[in-house]
Amino acid sequence: MATVNDRELAIARIYSKAMLDLAEEQGEADNLLGELQEAVKFLGRSPEFEQFLGSPLVDDEDRSRTLERAFRGRASDLLVDSLQVVNRKGRLGLLRAIAEGYRIEHSLVRGIVEAHVRTAIPLSEALRARVRESVARYTGKQPRLIEKVDPSLIGGIVIDVEGRKIDGSVASKLRELGQALERRASEEIVRARA
């Protein structure tokens, strides 16, 4: 799967914000989010189509006609019309970044924060609820948990929210204990030599 870099995302967020503003006016912001996510899935299944959209060798009119055939009647007019504007600006190769920027802008407007949660084993429903409650209290926002099982943690949990990391894993506790033991051993060796 192609990734989105920061430069692409910065440019794309201009389009994403405009699309979100328009979608909010029409009461279609949530629907457009879903459509953009589906469009990105489609790009994942059709790399040739993604290359076609971003190729400087393809004429804008050809791309415009292809967009109409591919999406009109299958997606909302809001999405198709937005893609046509992006195409006229020569930025259709940023569709993944635009979808990501839209998701970010949508979350900001809705007061949602992503919380990346790593655990050694899958979260139980009870623990998931506690994590949600804690993150909501910590951020003042509604959390969207993105869970990942990471057996290297041995046990415990690591939560990353808005670039802030909360590490309560057994692996980190063992690392801290090991570092403390190394410091103590070093200090004792230094004292013994003195």
Fold blueprint:
Layout: H1 6-25, H2 29-45, H3 47-54, H4 60-71, H5 77-88, H6 95-110, E1 112-119, H7 125-139, E2 142-149, E3 157-161, E4 164-167, H8 170-193
Parallel strand pairs: 1-2
Antiparallel strand pairs: 1-3, 3-4
Account of the 3D structure:
By secondary structure, the chain is of the alpha+beta class. The chain folds into two domains: 103 residues, N-terminal domain of the delta subunit of the F1F0-ATP synthase (Peroxidase, domain 1, Orthogonal Bundle); 79 residues, Glutaredoxin, CATH 3.40.30. It is built from eight helices and four strands, in the order H-H-H-H-H-H-E-H-E-E-E-H. It has a four-stranded mixed sheet with strand order 2-1-3-4. The longest helix is centred in the last third of the chain and has 24 residues. The radius of gyration is 23 Å and the shape is elongated. The model has no long low-confidence stretch (mean pLDDT 89).
Unreliably modeled segments: none
- Total count of helical runs of at least 4 residues: 8
CATH superfamily of the largest domain: N-terminal domain of the delta subunit of the F1F0-ATP synthase
Distance between the terminal alpha carbons, to the nearest Å? 59 Å
Query: What oligomeric assembly is this protein in?
Result: single chain
* SS class: alpha+beta
pLDDT averaged over residues: 89
CATH fold-level topology of the largest domain: Peroxidase, domain 1
Shape: elongated
How large, in whole angstroms, is the Cα Rg? 23 Å
Number of domains: 2
Order of helices and strands: HHHHHHEHEEEH
Q: The biggest beta sheet, please? A: 4 strands, mixed
Q: Give the strand order of the largest sheet, numbering strands 1, 2, ... along the chain.
A: 2-1-3-4
Q: Would you report the number of β strands?
A: 4
Give the CATH class of the largest domain.
Answer: Mainly Alpha
Share of helical residues: 55-70%
What's the CATH architecture name of the largest domain? Orthogonal Bundle
Q: Give the DSSP E fraction (strand runs of 2 or more residues).
A: 5-15%
